[in-house]
Amino acid sequence: MRISNAILRGVPGAYLLQSGYGKLGMDAQAAEGLKQFAATGVPQFAEWDSKTFATFIAGSELAVGAALVTPFVSKRLAGAGLLAFSAGLLTMYFRNSEMTKDDGIRPSEQGISLSKDFLMAALGAGLLVQK
Fold first, then answer.
1. Contact 67/101 with Cβ under 8 angstroms?
2. Contact (Cβ atoms closer than 8 angstroms) between residue 16 and residue 68
3. Interval 26-60: pLDDT, tens
4. Distance CA 108, CA 103 (A)
5. Which residues contact 130 (CB under 8 A, 6 or more apart)?
6. How many whole angstroms separate alpha carbon 14 and alpha carbon 7?
7. What does the alpha-carbon distance between residue 102 and residue 105 come to, in Å, rounded to a whole number?
8. Phi, psi (5° rounding) for residue 100?
9. Rounded to an integer, what distance in angstroms lies between the CA atom of residue 131 and that of residue 119?
10. N or C: which end of the chain has fewer CB within 10 A?
């Protein structure tokens, strides 16, 4: 693995591992809030049980993070996973009018926390198309 790939994979991988680990054992109230927020992007999540949803999100973050930091997982597979995960998060950004300014693109104050997903999507796309 080249050092450039290690950087492109290591930073978002460590971020997702830390985020996923932090969601393990999430209390019911926090899980419900996270689920309702996620449902703004993917309405089907509103039908899920809060505990199941929290486990799903934590597991997804841990799986993508682990794929990114594991050297024997191909960069294209790791990049595709990161891109897909980020695209899912960006649905909340674009489908929730409070996340963007009036132009529907630039982040509002509330949308700053989700705008990092553009960077993760770009890193995923870079890994996916890199030779």
1. no
2. yes
3. 999 999 999 998 998 889 999 999 999 999 999 99
4. 10
5. 5, 75, 76, 79
6. 11
7. 8
8. -120, 160
9. 20
10. C
CA distance 55 to 32: 12
Q: For the chain, what is the mean pLDDT?
A: 91
**What is the token pair recorded at 120?**
């993760």
Q: Which amino acid is at 126?
A: G
Both tokens assigned to 113: 């926390």
pTM: 0.88
Q: Which amino acid is at 89?
A: L
**Length of the chain as a residue count:** 131
CA dist., res. 115 & res. 89, Å (int): 10
